[in-house]
Structures are given as C-alpha cells and as structure tokens.
Specification:
mainly beta; two-stranded antiparallel sheet
C-alpha cells in the first residue's frame, strides 16, 4: 500500500456550512468527528 493510501482525503469541501475545508482521515483507526453548531448563547 502506498503512503498516501493510509488516509481518506477530502479537499475543498463546501457543503452546508463548510467553507473550503481540507481533511485527512487515517484509515484502519477509530476516528470520532464531533461537529458543534456555532451559535451564540442567549440567556
């Protein structure tokens, strides 16, 4: 397996609130992605 095959790469993602995001996710490992909304806290 080539070195770059060890990752799943997403480049230039622009879906929903993503604005040109580049991500490399390692293969054969447990990966947790937590996305939180960026909303102001209103009391």
């Amino acid at each position: 397996m080539k070195q770059f095959d060890n990752f799943i790469e997403v480049k230039g993602a622009r879906v929903h609130n993503l604005k040109n995001i580049d991500v490399s996710i390692p293969r054969e490992q447990l990966v947790v992605i937590k996305i939180t909304p960026l909303r102001p806290c209103v009391p």
